[in-house]
Specification:
The chain has helices at 2-39, 63-74, 93-105, 113-117, 173-178; strands at residues 85-86, 90-91, 121-123, 133-136, 145-151, 154-157, 166-169, 179-184. With 187 residues, it is α+β, with helices and mostly antiparallel strands. Helix 2 (63-74) packs across helix 3 (93-105). The termini are far apart.
């Protein structure tokens, strides 16, 4: 009986050191993988430019344009509501633009997306800067949707289909085919 206990206790004593070695090896492998992952640069697919837009360096945004873009990001995941004009009740695309321009830049813009499209100054899509507005024909009606350009080929908008304010790429097949115009409201 004593021999069996001694053998069992010898095996038990060996098990923790085996587990300890295995744990150390796993930790070393995990650390190596983490470090390797940190040293590689993620690659995103290139952003295709809108039809007719020339390749150009990103233009610096105006101070108000930056404020508008940053404020727009703070409303990501806000719920959609047709006719909505504030985040607590929900926002539609034009209500989102009106609210953000008022809060971030103290700039008053009112009306539907089509009404907003008559304000500001039209610009070439290659001249888009953060805070500029992008307009789309999404309902077989000119200027039926509007979003705020963020830079890097992306815009934030309040589409009814997703039900929440979110970011979309300008080269998204749905929106690139429906793009109509870009407008700026700041110098």
């Amino acid at each position: 009986m004593t021999g069996r206990v001694r053998i069992a206790s010898t095996q038990m004593a060996a098990a923790p050191s085996c587990l300890s070695t295995l744990a150390m090896r796993c930790t070393a492998v995990c650390a190596a993988l983490v470090l390797a992952a940190c040293s590689t640069t993620p690659t995103a697919p290139p952003i295709e430019r809108l039809p007719g837009a020339q390749q150009s360096q990103a233009l610096p945004a105006s101070e108000n344009g930056n404020e508008v873009a940053i404020y727009a990001l703070s409303l990501i995941d806000t719920g959609y509501r047709f006719g909505g004009k504030n985040p607590s009740a929900g926002l539609d695309c034009s209500g989102m633009v009106s609210y953000i321009f008022g809060q971030a830049a103290n700039y008053r813009i009112n009306g539907s997306a089509a009404d907003i499209a008559r304000q500001g100054r039209q610009i070439d899509p290659s001249q888009l800067r953060a805070g500029d507005l992008v307009f789309f024909n999404t309902m077989n009606k000119p200027f039926s949707h509007v979003g705020i350009y963020l830079g890097d080929g992306r815009f934030v908008h309040a589409p009814s289909t997703n039900g929440k304010v979110h970011i979309t790429r300008m080269d998204n097949p749905y929106f690139s085919r429906r793009f109509e115009m870009a407008r700026t409201y700041f110098n």
